[in-house]
Specification:
This protein has two domains: 103 residues, Non-ribosomal Peptide Synthetase Peptidyl Carrier Protein, Chain A, CATH 1.10.1200.120; 29 residues. It has three helices and four strands, in the order ααββαββ. α2 crosses α3. The protein is mainly alpha-helical. A two-stranded antiparallel sheet has the order 1-2. The chain has a two-stranded antiparallel ribbon with strand order 3-4.
Length: 150
C-alpha cells in the first residue's frame, strides 16, 4: 500500500519531470513540426505537384506488374519518390537557404582562423609557424601568423 507521503513525493517528482524545460521544448517542437509538416505537404500536393505537369511529368499511379498472386504497384513508389524530391526541394529552397542567409547576416563573430596546417609530405597537422614537421621531419616553410583583429 502506498502511503500519503509517498503519493506526495511521487506527485512532486512527476511535476518536476513534466515541467522540466527540455520536456516542454520537445512537446512544443513536436507540435510545431507536425504543423509545419502539414504546410509543406500542402505546398507539395497543391502547388508543386500540379506544376510538374508543365514539365510533362506523368502520373505513375496506374503502373503495376503482376507477380503470381501479388500486384507490385511500382507506379505508386515512383510517385512517392517524386513527392519526396519535391518535399526535399521545398524544404531546402524555402526554409534551409533563407534561414542560412538570415544567420549569415546576423553573425557578429569573425571567422575562426586556423593555427595549424597539413604537412605537404605526410599530411599530418602541424602548427603554422613550424619549419620542420614533427612527424616526418620534412622541412616546411613557416606561415606568417595572422594579424589580430582590432
Amino acid at each position: 500500500m502506498v502511503t500519503a507521503e509517498e503519493k506526495k513525493g511521487l506527485l512532486k517528482e512527476f511535476q518536476a519531470f513534466v515541467l522540466r524545460g527540455n520536456v516542454i521544448d520537445l512537446a512544443v517542437g513536436v507540435v510545431i513540426g507536425g504543423a509545419f509538416g502539414l504546410v509543406i505537404s500542402s505546398l507539395v500536393e497543391n502547388v508543386l505537384t500540379p506544376l510538374t505537369g508543365i514539365f510533362r511529368v506523368p502520373d505513375f499511379r496506374s503502373l503495376a506488374v503482376e507477380v503470381g498472386p501479388a500486384t507490385l504497384s511500382y507506379g505508386l513508389f515512383l510517385n512517392a519518390v517524386i513527392s519526396f524530391l519535391l518535399v526535399s526541394a521545398a524544404i531546402f529552397f524555402l526554409v534551409v537557404k533563407p534561414v542560412n542567409k538570415l544567420n549569415e547576416r546576423r553573425r557578429t563573430e569573425p571567422d575562426v582562423v586556423s593555427t595549424t596546417r597539413d604537412c605537404p609530405q605526410c599530411l599530418s597537422s602541424i602548427p603554422n609557424a613550424a619549419s620542420l614537421c614533427a612527424f616526418c621531419t620534412s622541412e616546411v616553410q613557416p606561415l606568417p601568423e595572422p594579424a589580430p583583429e582590432s
